Every structure is written in C-alpha cells, then in structure tokens.
Amino acid sequence: MTWKVFTLGLLWFIASIFLTAILSVQDKEWWIGTDGIKNICDLMEYIESDDARDVGIFFSSPIFFPAIYAILIKRKRYWFIYLVTFLISGYWLWQFFIRYQLCLW
C-alpha cells in the first residue's frame, strides 16, 4: 500500500462520513431531549410521515463510486480500500436503515 492510497482513502472516508451524517438527519431531529422525546424512535412516533430519507439515500449513494472504481475497474486489491469501504457501508446502513429498524422491536 502506498501513501497515495492511504491519503486518498482517508480523505474519502472523512468526506463520506460527513456527507452521510448531513444527508441522513431528520428534519426535526433536534427535538430529541425535549417534550418527552428521548430517542429517534420516540421522534418517529411523534412526527407523522415527515421522512425524507429516500432523498438522502439517492444523493449519498455516489460515495460508493470510488470503491467501485478502485476495486472493479482498476482492480486494486489493497486491504485498506476494503476496510474503508466496509466502515463507510456500515455507517451508511446505520444512518439510513438500521437505527429505524430497531424501533420496530
């Protein structure tokens, strides 16, 4: 692994986490901690059909383009690329899907 792969992977990781965090925020998520709303599940019960996650999913999906390019097109097989892709995918899934599915239990 070269220093270029490490540097670009780190920049891609930071930018992806930042973009995912911004695009996955609910409109009224700042209400958590007020008026009996303790967590995201209480917020989802309180707000009626004010879910804009589909737009965030669409606009944040290009964060996976560098991984597709590096792994499939350039055929670079560095463990660091796999690690960063796994971490970004996990965070992306958590922000858009898993944290809402836990409310159903």
The major β-sheet equals:
none
- What fraction of residues sit in β-strands? under 5%
Q: Separation of termini?
A: 43 Å
From the spread of the alpha carbons, the general shape counts as: elongated
Radius of gyration: 17 Å
Q: Structural class, from helix and strand content?
A: mainly alpha
Count of helix runs: 5
Mean of the pLDDT scores? 84
N-to-C series of helices and strands: HHHHH
Low-pLDDT windows of residues: none
Percentage of residues in helical conformation: 55-70%
Question: Would you count the extended β strands for me?
Answer: 0
Features:
105 residues, mainly alpha, 5 helices
What does this structure look like?
The structure is a single chain. The chain contains 5 helices and no strands. Helix content is 65%, strand content 0%. The protein starts with a helix and ends with a helix. It is mainly α and 105 residues long.
Short account of what is shown:
The chain contains 5 helices and no strands. With about 100 residues, it is mostly helical.
Topology, please?
Layout lengths: L2 H21 L16 H7 L6 H8 L4 H9 L5 H23 L4
Helix pairs in contact: 1-3, 1-5
